[in-house]
Amino acid sequence: MDLYRIAPGTAPALVDRNPRDKTAYKDLKKATSGPTLAQKQKELAALQRLLWADGSRSLLVVLQAMDTGGKDGTIRKVFSGVNPQGVDVTGFGVPTEEELAHDYLWRVHRHTPAKGRIGVFNRSHYEDVLVVRVAEIAPEPVWRRRYDHIVAFEQMLADEGTAVVKIMLHISKDEQKERLEARLEDPSKSYKFNPGDLKSRAAWAEYMAAYEEAIERTTTDAAPWFVVPADRKWHRNLVVADILIDTLKAMDLSYPEAEFDVTDFAIPD
Ligand code: AMP
Ligand code: MG
After folding, report:
1. Does residue 95 have its Cβ closer than 6 Å to ligand 1?
2. Pocket test for ligand 1, best of 63, 92, 105, 207 (most atoms within 8 A of CB)
3. Is 213 domain-assigned?
């Protein structure tokens, strides 16, 4: 998945990345991708069992995207084979009064995954250098110094046993228009429409600039960023599954050995 990984010290060059790209699965189409995803869901489920059994490491998956970028759909699809008991999904919205009374990492640190578990962040501390920057919720010197805090925070998580992967689901402005229209037209989707989303849409270029700089400043070996093309949902799901599978495989997990000789036992009738 090096195709979509942003190397330390490099900018993602978002304007040059095609959100409709399907390079990782050129030979597939939506209609023929089902079995491939099913196979990856199984693989992910097996790796999650191993993570749990190993008990010494954890995985944190940070998902960021513009509205309608597919964070919810990715979580639903990619994790549908995994034991729900081993996964904690946390969404981060507009901070509450209590959250605002603390530093901006307080609310996220409380939800980082315990050993053996997978934690998924639907939005994250990156909002504190994205919306906070674009909507001018805090002045520039305040959000700008956060890049260094975030790098140090994520390095600490990695040092203590948490593998951290950060994924930007990269959709085009045209695709967002279609998805927002669908929310208005389909009664089963309209609950997701938020008039405030039009404000962020109007600031598209500012958001892309904020993502560009945040990703460049915070992509590290300990906590890499991936920019995943997300206009095609089926390709997005396969790529995200691959990133998680690769990450879990690289963690060198193992089933603990029994602390007794299993041949000493016979189960009575
Ligand atoms: P949703 O993901 O649709 O539930 O929307 C959550 C909203 O909360 C988005 O508009 C985010 O921009 C906003 N949000 C998340 N984190 C922050 C933050 N730290 N400061 C301000 N707004 C935030
Ligand atoms: Mg929303």
Report:
1. yes
2. 92
3. yes
102 occurs within a structural domain: yes
Burial of residue 151, with CB atoms counted within 10 A of its CB: 0-12 exposed, 13-18 middle, 19 or more buried: middle
Domain with residue 239: its CATH number is: 3.40.50.300
Taking ligand 2, which is a single-atom ion, which protein residues have CB atoms under 5 Å away? 67, 194
pTM exceeding 0.85:
yes
* Boundaries of domain holding 59: 5-253
> Across the strands, what pairs with 164?
60
Burial class (CB in 10 A: 0-12, 13-18, 19+), 196: exposed
Ligand 2 centroid, distance to 66 Cα (angstroms): 9
> Block means of pLDDT (10 residues each) for the chain, length 269 residues?
94 98 96 97 98 98 98 97 96 98 98 98 98 98 98 98 98 98 94 94 98 98 98 98 98 93 93
**Does some domain include residue 139?**
yes
Domain count, the chain: 1
